[in-house]
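User: I'm new to structure prediction. If I give you an amino acid sequence, what do you actually give back? Let's try with this one:
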Amino acid sequence: MAAPKKGRNASAQSKPGRSLALILIAIVALTGGMFASGHTTPRLGIDLAGGTSITLTAVPEKGQESAINKTNMNTAVDIMNRRVNGLGVSEAEVQTQGDKNIIVNIPKGTNSREARDQVGTTAKLYFRPVLQREAVAGSATPTPSASPSGSGSPSASSTGKAGAGDSVSSGSASPSATATSQGRAVTDALKADATPSTSSSPNASGSPSPSASSGSDAATDKLQKEYAALDCANPKQRAAAGKGAKPGQSTVACGQDGEVWSKFLLGPVAVDGTEIKKAAATFNTQSAAGWQVDMTFNSSGSDKFGDITAKLAQQTSPLNEFAIVLDDKVVSHPYVQSAITGGNAQISGSFTQEEAESLANMLSYGALPLTFKESSVTTVTAALGGEQLQAGLIAGAIGLALVVLYLLVYYRGLSFIAILSLLVSAALTYTIMSLLGPTIGFALNLPAVCGAIVAIGITADSFIVYFERVRDEIREGRTLRPAVERAWPRARRTILVSDFVSFLAAAVLFVVTVGKVQGFAFTLGLTTLLDVVVVFLFTKPLLTLLARREFFAGGHKWSGLDPKRLGAKPPLRRTRRPAGPAAGPVDPKEA
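Assistant: Good question. You get back a string of structure tokens that encode the predicted 3D arrangement of the chain. For your 591 residues, that looks like this:
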């Protein structure tokens, strides 16, 4: 039984190269991804890159003081985050401060000025009839389809996506009208009529709807030219589409359905978002529709919504659709199956829970009586942050130099392993930070730099724990190769417990804090995880390999593992007394 066990141990000890190859492949892959993405340096926060810090104060409308609450403020933060991120601003930070204030930090960049102009603007949400919809050139037009939900409720697109095959109803059973795809016939319909209704369809007042030839030909032609020239695949045109359009005017807008961008020609506002009393995401257990968004309008909104849905229900796609427009962007465009009266409506379709909740938040925010005023605007220069960063890097370099000096003096040859491990950890940290910028918006700020400096001590501590365990085994009289393997289980437990405590502290700090302190916690947690990876996949396998070299295995005085310097005990030897005659009485004559 002992022989097989020895064979397994020998096999495990003889393949440390696999672990070293694995971590080498990881470093090469991360470095390649970093250069392939074009982000070869970490993103910098506002304290290092400079920028603008804006303090916005919520101002309620008369009689609506209770609207300023935690839920509504958090919703406003989410909307502002989407605005500045949509402008391509690097690491914009939006957070609440106190009960009424929102702090927006916008790093210096090409779109920073535009972000400042838009971030404090109260969100405007409208329901506009769709006059024309077209996918951008070069992408496949999504084929609209509609199927009746189990309750006859309307279908809608997912949040932030202009869904094409979605419907809306009041929940009453009605046949599902299948929407047809956009094509030439739709363009001809637009030329014949500038409104979603045909000339024979009554408008809200019961009179015929105006046609394109009713005296507004010049305005209609101008809008059609603007629609024809609009390229929603272009971020600049996307951001400019519909800007400055008044509620009573037709306009153009962009929306996204999955990976496909579509452009829209929209009629005047039919229902204002402020007329939504309530919107909530619910799960429909009575049908296969799944997640849906329930809307309730006030009395004025109920009448308007009933009028527009009555008109749209008589049309074919896309004239039977209405667009939900938030900040001049189409976030959804469900089609109408029948007139919806009573003030209650449902939007359903291929929603996930997150999409349904997000759309419900957008609809709810349109009804909030919140406006913001700029309390202060501060320009932050990169010079001060650069000086602080330089001082921090100098402090980190001094600390690292002292750690290396200590390792060289005390551990001698073993310090070679420790220094290489620190370099591997630094390479992993740098590449991952560079890649996290474009992927999750991580930005390196001064607290994050402090977290990286603190991590040097955490990483060095893991090496020291393992080296001391190995030395303890040598002091017990064991040779190096068995000492390396016997020391690992005890050192591993200590390292894991220590890193777990550090990671737990970083996680708690990340959850309970906001702003820049989260940068410190995130970096500390990341480097703690990387410490475990480096120790398991690099430090231990490398020491296993070097233990086979005569310089270390022979206990050279500069190896850091000299048995004499460590005060090793001599190996225990068992002595045997020579066998003799059994003891008995001694004959006096023989004595």
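You can read the tokens as a compact description of the fold. Here is one thing that stands out. The two ends are 53 Å apart (CA to CA).
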